[in-house]
Specification:
Blueprint (H helix, E strand, L loop, with lengths): L3 H20 L2 H28 L20 H21 L8
């Protein structure tokens, strides 16, 4: 079993907690953690596209190469979706509840 989605989620939540406890801004920490792993997976998708369709040359990569669905697989989708879901859950649990207007 591939444990990287859980590892990425734990790292992203750790970053969220560090930023949230320091700045009291839970969504910002979650956003930073999620963007880190989304950017990482996008970069890896670009390299997969280069290997599959670009003859191994980065110069052959079009601007949309990293967005091509053929360069993504279930593992790469889970590697950014797990941190996003985990940080959203933490944000929902730790954000300040506002009282309902009277």
């Amino acid at each position: 079993m591939d444990w990287t989605p859980l590892e990425h989620a734990a790292i992203a939540v750790g970053l969220q907690l560090a930023v949230g406890m320091r700045l009291r801004n839970w969504w910002l920490g979650g956003l930073l953690g999620c963007c880190w792993f989304l950017a990482r997976e996008h970069t890896q998708a670009e390299y997969r596209w280069i290997a599959q369709f670009g003859a191994g040359l980065r110069a052959n990569l079009p601007w949309w190469g990293g967005f091509d669905a053929n360069a993504w697989d279930l593992g790469s989708m889970m590697d950014w979706m797990a941190p996003a879901l985990a940080c959203t859950a933490v944000w929902a649990l730790l954000r300040k509840r506002r009282p309902a207007p009277a």
